[in-house]
Amino acid sequence: MKFQRPKGTEDLYNQQAIIFSNIINRLITVAKNFNYQEIITPVIESADLFLRTIGRTTNIVEKEIYQFLDKGKRSLALRPEGTAGVIRSVVENKLYNNQKQTLKYFYYGNMYRYENPQKGRNREFHQFGVEALGTKDPLLDVEVILLATKMLAALTINDYVLQLNFFGSSETKTKFNHALLKALTKDKAKLCFDCQTRIKTNPLRVLDCQTCQTLNLDLPAIAQFYSPEEQEYFSVITNALATLKINFKINPTLVRGLDYYTGVIFEFISETELLGKSQNTLIGGGRYDHLAQELGVPYDYPAVGFAFGIERLMLLLAEKLAFSQIKLLDLFIISQFQDGLKQTLLLLNDLRNNNYFVDGNFSLFNDKQKSNLIKNLQTTNNLLVLEKPNQATCYQLTKKAKVVIKFENQEQLLAKILTLV
Fold first, then answer.
1. Residue 287 host element (H or E)
2. Which phi and psi angles does 25 have, rounded to 5°?
3. CB count, 10 Å around CB of 121?
4. If 0-12 CB within 10 Å is exposed, 13-18 middle and 19+ buried, where does residue 265 land?
5. Torsion-angle region of 64 (φ positive above 0: left; ψ -120 to 50: alpha; else: beta)
6. What's phi and psi for 260, nearest 5 deg?
7. What residues form DSSP beta bridges with 270?
8. Helix, strand, coil shares of the chain as percentages rounded to 5?
9. I need a surface site. Which of 3, 213, 377, 400 has the fewest CB within 10 A?
10. What is the per-residue pLDDT across 17-57, written as a single tens digit (0 to 9) for each?
11. Among candidate residues 294, 307, 241, the one with its CA nearest the CA of residue 31
12. In angstroms, rounded to a whole number, what is the distance separating the alpha carbons of residues 140 and 341?
């Protein structure tokens, strides 16, 4: 029987695994620089967690969630996104107890959505996200957006546009929904089949439909429903972004695909052609002030955050040597005589104890095999050939030189190697 990976999944190895790790490591470095701490949550959660937090009428819940019953007849789901699990963890473990301290967490890991696999979008995919919890302030929103720009800079990505929208409070969002429903009902015949259903269940999703976005519809603007306080809040955000010289565009049709957002929402859109137009969102995020309270925090506990799709970053960074280049070994060791294999093991151990990046081979090499290795080896700075009990040659491949080493014991050989690598 031939086994194959499931549709919509990938094996990451060699250069792909290196690119993946380099991306994650750079994102972690920036997150820690902003004092975010790592949080690790399960891949499986109660299905109700996602049904409740993401929204029953979203695409994720209606069409994409991996939901199943376990042997105890419990309804579980593979996580389709990271925020709900982080909030569940904060609530369950009572991490919110210090009300004056902003909790800052980052996470990364596998997510799952049953959708049609395409470029930059798989059924199993990876996200890196951050969440800042416990504080509602426009300047925190700005700092979170600033963090996103710093992460993109660390990834050497600068060809993007930041799009903003502002929902205001739940009450403002509800008023806008009612006005939007009324306007869309008038133009129902113009809408695609899916959106004709959405106008009753979730009118905001019509704004997110790429087909219906091209229609010339007379729709209300959410800004007309802002209270004076909300206008001031959004003004602080835009003014601070301008002060920080972070360019942005206000997009009144930006809604994101999750129901829990309130306040500011944002996306960083790639302007390169590598991702195409349908998969060009690099970062999506915003404020979700009621989610923690809905899940059990006994008082108002606001939050804001965002997430990256790692697969899309990999597509953008695949050609950049800084992300795909394999780190060269300091030394690779081979032997041409039997006792040299044991010597190889001891040398590798000693060199690793001295923090050198080394490896070796435990098969004997003849002269022809040695010559082919020297000609083709591109993963090491130096090749040490143990030729006979008291002689070795170090081929300094990056310097295109060689040094013959004569020695009486293992300690003497190690000392001479340390002067060469």
1. strand 281-287
2. -60, -40
3. 17
4. buried
5. alpha
6. -80, -5
7. 160
8. 40, 25, 35
9. 3
10. 999 999 999 999 999 999 999 999 999 999 999 887 665 54
11. 307
12. 59
192 CB-contact burial (10 Å; exposed 0-12 / middle 13-18 / buried 19+): middle
Give the tokens for residue 12.
């990451």
Instruction: With beta carbons less than 8 A apart as the criterion, state whether 308 and 285 touch.
Output: no
In DSSP notation, 338-403 reads: HHHHHHHHHHHHHHHHTT--EEEEEEE--HHHHHHHHHH--SBSEEEEEEETTEEEEEETTTTEEE
- The pTM of this model reads 0.87
Tokens describing residue 54: 């993401």
Token code pair at residue 323: 């992300």
Contacts of 208 (CB under 8 A, 6+ apart): 253, 255, 256, 257
3-state SS class at 147: helix
For 59-106, what is each residue's pLDDT tens digit?
556 668 899 999 999 999 999 999 999 999 999 999 997 667 899 999
Best CA proximity match to 221, nearest among 244, 190, 249, 252: 252
